Amino acid sequence: MAKSFLSIEQLTQRYPDGQGGEFTVFENANFGIEKGEFVCILGHSGCGKSTIMNILAGLADPTSGVVKMDGQHVSGPSLDRGVVFQNYSLLPWLTALKNVTFGVQARFPDWDKSKVIEHSTAFLEKVGLTGDTIHRKPSQLSGGMRQRVSIARAFANEPKLLLLDEPFGALDALTRGTIQDELIKVWSDTDQTVFMITHDIDEAILLADRILLMTNGPMAQVAESVEITIPRPRKRTDIVDHPNYYAIRNHLVQFLGQRSAELAGQSDTPPLAQPKTVRIDLTEDIDAEDPEPATPQLRAVEA
Amino acid sequence: METLSENKKAALLSVLLLLVGCLIWELSIPAQEAAGELTEYELLTGGGQPKAGVPPPSQVLGKAWEQLSNPFYDAGPNDKGIGIQIGYSIYRVLTGYLLAALIAIPLGFLIGMSSVAYKALNPFIQVLRPISPLAWMPLALFVIQDSEMSAIFVIFICSIWPMLINTAFGVAGVREDWVNVARTHELGAFKTAFTVILPAAAPTIVTGMRISIGIAWLVIVAAEMLVGGTGIGYYVWNEWNNLDLTSVIFSILMIGVVGMLLDSLFGLLQRAVAYVE
Ligand SMILES: Nc1ncnc2c1ncn2[C@@H]1O[C@H](COP(=O)(O)OP(=O)(O)O)[C@@H](O)[C@H]1O
Ligand SMILES: [Mg+2]
Prior knowledge:
The complex is a heterodimer of chains A (303) and B (277).
Chain A: E1 6-16, E2 22-33, E3 38-42, H1 49-57, E4 64-69, E5 72-73, E6 81-84, H2 96-107, H3 113-126, H4 143-156, E7 161-165, H5 173-189, E8 193-198, H6 201-207, E9 210-214, E10 222-227, H7 236-239, H8 243-262, E11 276-279, H9 295-302
Parallel strand pairs in A: 3-8, 3-9, 6-7, 7-8, 10-11
Antiparallel strand pairs in A: 1-2, 1-4, 4-5, 9-10
Chain B: H1 6-28, H2 30-44, H3 57-69, H4 82-113, H5 115-128, H6 137-144, H7 147-172, H8 176-184, H9 189-227, H10 232-241, H11 245-273
The structure holds adenosine-5'-diphosphate and magnesium ion.
The site of magnesium ion has 2 residues of chain A, from helix 1.
C-alpha cells in the first residue's frame, strides 16, 4: 500500500489506571490521511479521540507507535500542524486581530508588519469578521465569534495539517451551522488537509471526505473508514435529498449506537490492521462491479 | 436627594463625616488649648509637666498650610521641609523596592516554571518570609555599616516576599491551553515567557507588587525612626521629641496620603494589565 501523506502506524496509548496497573486507551491504531483530504473522526466520549489529536499535534507522546507526515517522523509541536482547540484557546489579553497576527508573525517571521496585518485581516474576513469586531478582546466576543477567530488563526498559518478538536462542541446549533459553512468556504479556497474530531454525525457528513469510526474504549480501535459519497459543494439543505445521505447516516448511527459497543474491548486485532473501508453509493449501478465489496455496506442499506 | 447618584451620595456622606468628626474633635479639647500655649514655657523651664495637649484640627490645618506652602525648605539637619523628608522616604522605598523586584520577579518565574526549583527554594522562603523586616536591622547595620543602606536593605527584604510568591503563583497557574498555543506556534522559551506567560501572569504579579509597596511604606516609617537622620519616619519621631504634636498629627496624615498615592499608582497598573478570560 502506498504511503499516505499522513500515516499513523501502530499507535498505542496506555495510562496508569490509578491502582498500580495501567489501562490501554487504544492499541495498534493504523490509518492514513491523504493530502488535501478532510477527515472526521467519530466516536463516543472517552474513546481517545483527543489523545490521538494531541499526539498528532505533537503536544503529547504516545506510549508506542509512530506518526509520519510527508515521510518524516512527527515529534513535538510544529507550525506545520495547526490546532483549533474546543475552548478556542485565544489569548484573552490580545484583540481578535492580534490573536491572528500572533500566529502569522510566528509562521512568517520575515514578513513586515503591514503584510502580517493584511494577511490576518483577510483570513478574519473569510470567516465573516470585519470592521470594529476584530479590534475587540475575546471576552467581548460571542462564543461563535471566538471560534471564528480561532479558525482564522489556524488557516492564516497555512499549516500542512490542520487539527480541530470538537471545534463547535460548545456552540448552539444555529451558530454551529453558520461556522460550518464558513469553515467549508475557507477550506475550499485552500488545499488544506484537515483532521477533525466531532461527535455530531450530521456535521461529519456535511464536512468530511471520509469519516473514521472508533469503537468504545478502553482498547478502542479505528474500526472503519466511511467514504462520504456526496459530491461537493454540499449545502446542508440539499444534502438530505441526496440518495446516499440517509444510507450513510444510518450506517453511522448504527455503528455508534450499537456496533461501537459490540466491537469494544477486542485485543486480538493484528498490529497492522487498517480500518475497514466502507463505501456506500446508491447512485452507482447496482449491477456494476464494485471494486471494494464491503459487507458493512449491505448491512447499512438494510438497516 | 433621590436624584443623586450613588457616588455623589457617598462623597457627600464622606465630607459630612469628616466635618462632624473634626467638629467633635475641635469641641472636645477646648480646655487643653491653654495647656498647649503653656508648653513652650514649660519646656523652657524644663517643667515637671511634659504632657502636651492634643491639638485641635484647626491647629493641624494651620500647620498643614504652613508646611505645604513651603515643603522644600532646608534649615539644617533637624529642620527640613516635609517635602524633603517625604522625598527621602520615597527614595529609600523605591530603591529597596526596585532591587527586590529585580530579584523577585525573575526568581518567581523560575520557581513557577520548575517544580524542582520550587521544592528546593520553598523551605528557605518559608523560614525567611515570616521574619519581621525590622529584625534584620541590627544585622544590616553591622554588616553594611551604613544607616542609609541598612534602611534600604530592610525595604528590600520586606518587599521581596509578596512579589516572589505572587510571581511564582501566577506563572505556575498560567493555563495549559495558552502554553500549548505557544508550543504549537514554535515559540522559543524566551518568547513564550514574554509574549504568553508574562501577560497571562501579569495581574497576579502586579497584585504582589501592590502588596509589597504597601508593606514597604509601612516599614520605612519604623526603619527611619530607628536609623534617624532624614525621612518622614524620623520626622515623626523628631517632632514627638520636640513635643510638637501638631506636626506629629500632620505628618501622620501625610504618611497616609503618600501611602494612598503609591497604592493607587499600582491600582492603575493593575487595571492596565487586567484581562477578562
Ligand atoms: N493524562 C491522562 N492520564 C490518564 N488518563 C488519561 C489522560 N488523558 C486522557 N486519559 C483517559 O484516556 C481516555 C481517552 O481520553 P480522550 O482522548 O480525552 O477521549 P475523547 O477525546 O475521545 O473523549 C479517557 O478514558 C481519559 O480518561
Ligand atoms: Mg475530547
